[in-house]
Each structure stands twice: as structure tokens, then as C-alpha cells.
Amino acid sequence: MRLIVPMGGRGTRLRPLSHTTPKPLLPLLGRPAIVRILDAFAAGLGRPVDEVVFVTGPDASADVRGALTAACEAHGLRAAFAVQPEPLGTAHAVACAGAALEGEVLTCWADTLFAPAGPAPLGAADLIAWTVEVEDPRRFGVAVRDEGGRVVRLVEKPQTTEHRETLVGAYYVRDGAALRTVLDDMLASKATGAGGEYQLTDAYDRLVQNGARMETAPVARWLDTGTLDSYRQTVRALLEAGEADPAGLGPEAEGVEAPSFVHPEAVVRRSRVGPYAMIEAGAVVEDAEVRDSVVMAGAAVRRARLAASVIGERAVVDGLSGTFVLGADAEVRDDV
């Protein structure tokens, strides 16, 4: 079973982190986001993913590809890559996977995190979408059912709130070749949708109109890491859910207030950490206070007080207090 992850966008809402860290590799309590996505599919389908195809933009660096490959190989998965030459929409991104669209295929956005509420209704389903009820689904896509409860249509960014069964962006397709045919037809006929782009929701709707049997599977939790604020809120939600194992605190961790996560390979000395703090591997926090903040791998926070901050890999905050958002290797210091 193959998972296709479109990530060809420029990640502007996640800058400066996205300059060096793609969304699938954002750390979440010691594990990259892509591993949590894979675990969700494995839990919902009852079997693991074999390969992940990342659809990147044309400027994706060799370092990014190497890091994504290493993350997959560390969990026994093959990693493959396709390129979306220009950002023409989500359906266009998946179409760029080309020959990878065969057999059983999963698709999921790089910034979508979900937890299945139970096993997916595989059975004779040709298409499964994970969904959640929301009060106002107009920013998303929705499933529309007939009077008998059968899914008969999918609508991207509906104009009303009549239908609230919202698509979280995670799908299973039994026949990837059928999806490829639909995508190719959309591109050939220039069938753009919302926002003037090729929408993946429209492609799945075409499968339904072509007679595919569709089922939905509820999610117990739906989070995303698409913006700096939502990334920090996702960390907070995972901590509130108890996903930080207190036994995982590093041997040198002290002054940590729950719920928080301190990686075993991080160091906390003479400091107060938490609540809602995440300190990743190799980070050092000394003579500081860190709350409601993310300190990524290899970063250093010394003689500082941080709140609602995101400190990128190997970045340094020294002698200052406040709210900071730093990209990788950035430094802010009190030199007085």
C-alpha cells in the first residue's frame, strides 16, 4: 500500500521553519509528523504502509529529500519522490505522482494529523474518506449524502453549512489507476475548481459519479501543522492528550511542569519548563523559563524567558525574554 503526500507548496505560512524543515519532518513529541500520519493510517486500515511518495516542488533540496528518506527508512518504509513543477492545485500535485498511482493508494496532506475513531469500513468500498463533523465547513470539503445515507457527492468549499460531514484530507483508494484516469481527464479538459485550481476533492467526486462505492470513517481528532500557530496548538493538543510519556524525560531534566515533553537527549538545567513546552533532542535549556513553546533539535535557550515561541533547529536565544519565532541557526542575544 502506497501513501502519496503532496508537499509542493512553498510553505509560506510556516516560515521561517519551512525554509529548512518540510512539514512531514516537523517534530511532534520526539517523532516526525510523517510517522504520526503513517501510524494513523495503519490504525485505521489494520495494516501498514509500504512506500511513501513525496510530491515536492522543483526547488526541493537534496538535503530535504535525504531527510525524508531517512525518516522513512528508520521505520522500514521505502521513500520515492515526484515533482510538481508548478503549484496548480492538489489534484495536479497527486497527478504528478504518475506511475505511483496503481493498486491501493492513500493520499494525505503533509500538514494533516488525524486519529481514527475506529477501523475503516474497507469491505467492498472503492473509496474511503476520513471525516469529522464541524459547525462551519465552508473552508473545507464535505460529503453529501442522499436520503438513504449513501455518499453521492463531494463538494470543495461549499457555499452553505447544510452539509457538515467534513473531509479532513485523508483518503484510501482501492484502485489507484482509476484515480489516475480521472486526474488525467481533469488536466486534459482544464477542469479547475475552487480558487481556479485543480482540486483533489473534485477528482474523488468524479470517482463517485463514475460509480465508485464510497464510505467514510470518523476521526477522533483532527489537527494540522500548516501555520506556526497551528503547529504550536497541535503540540499543545498532543500534550493535553497525554502523548508525552513522563518516563521519557531526560535524565538531566529538572523543573519540568506537566504537560510537557523533554526529549531524553535534551538537557534542562536550573530552569522552569512548561506547561505546554516541547524540548527536542539535543536542545539545551539553562537558567531559563520556557512555557507554551517549541524548542527544536539542537537549539539553545539560556538566561531567557520564553512564552508562545517556536525556536528552530540549532537556533539560540540568550539573555532575552518574550515571544520569538526563529528559523534554523538563527541567534538572538543580549550583548549588553
From TrEMBL:
What organism, scientifically named, is this protein from?
A: Rubrivirga marina
UniProt entry keywords in alphabetical sequence? Nucleotidyltransferase, Transferase
Ranges for domain Nucleotidyl transferase come to 7-238
Matching InterPro entries, A to Z? GlmU-like (IPR050065), NTP_transferase_dom (IPR005835), Nucleotide-diphossugar_trans (IPR029044)
Q: Does the keyword Transferase apply?
A: yes
Q: Which domain of life is it from?
A: Bacteria
Alphabetical list of Gene3D superfamilies matching this protein = Spore Coat Polysaccharide Biosynthesis Protein SpsA, Chain A (3.90.550.10)
Q: Which GO terms describe its molecular function?
A: nucleotidyltransferase activity
Q: What is this protein called?
A: Nucleotidyl transferase domain-containing protein
